[in-house]
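Here is one chain, start to finish.
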Amino acid sequence: MSLVSACCNTPAVDNAHWHNKGEHVTLSTEIAGKPRKTYLTGPKDSKRGIVAIYDIFSYHPTTYQFFDRLAESHGGFQLSAPEFFPEGGINPEYLGDSTKVMGWIGQHGDYHKNHILEVTLAAVEDLRKAGCTSFSLVGQCWGVLMAAKVVSEEGTPFVSAGGPHPSFISLETTKDVKTPMILLASKDEADMIPVIERLNIKGFPVESFHQRFDNMHHGWTGGRGDWNVPEQFKAGLEAVDLLGAFYAKVAAANDSKL
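Its structure:
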C-alpha cells in the first residue's frame, strides 16, 4: 500500500486552538492488560454512537473541534475517540521521510499488533452501556483504513464507516467491507469513485457516498487543519455536516430494521 505523499511531508498546525467540549475518561476494558483513555463528547442521551480514529498526530486542537462538532451535528451523537497511540502521535522530525513515516505507522498503527479492533470494540461496549443502540466509525487519514478493516470483520457492530482525507483506501482494502462508507477526499487523494461504485454493488440499505474537496489539502480536518483560515473552516463544517447526515441516515435505516 502507498501513503498519500502529503501525509509524509505536511506537518501539524501548531497555532490551532479549541476549548474542548468533552472529557477524557478511561475505557472500562483494558487493552493488552493496560488501561486506555478515550475522549467522550456529544449529548449523553443520544442513542447513536460514533467511534472516532484520529490521524497520526493523535489528539490535536483541530481534531478535537472536528470531533465536538460532529458529535453535535444532525441531532447529536455520543462520540468516543479512543487513545490509539498511548505514547503520542508521530515524531514531527519523521515528516518528509516516507520510510520513517511508514516505519512509525508500522510500529504504532498496525491493525493487529496495536490492537486497533480491540480498542474500537472496547469503545463500542462503553457506548452501549451509555445507551447507544447503533454505532458508526469515523477515521481521518490512516484512521479511515483502520475503519475499513474494522468493518470488514465478520459480525462487526458498526453500521457505517468512513471519513475525510482517507489514506490507503482502494478496491483491495475495501473489498470485504460490510457496511456503507462515506469518503471525503481532498485534492491529494486518489480517485475514490471506483471504490464507491464497488461498495454500492453490495446492496446496502443506504448507498455509500463520496465528495471531493478539491480546494483542501490532505489532513484539513485533523492535525494538519487550521480552522482559523476561513476556507478551511468552511470546508471543515461542510465535512462535518456530510458525515453527520450520512451517519444519521444509516442509523435510522438500521433502527427501522429492529
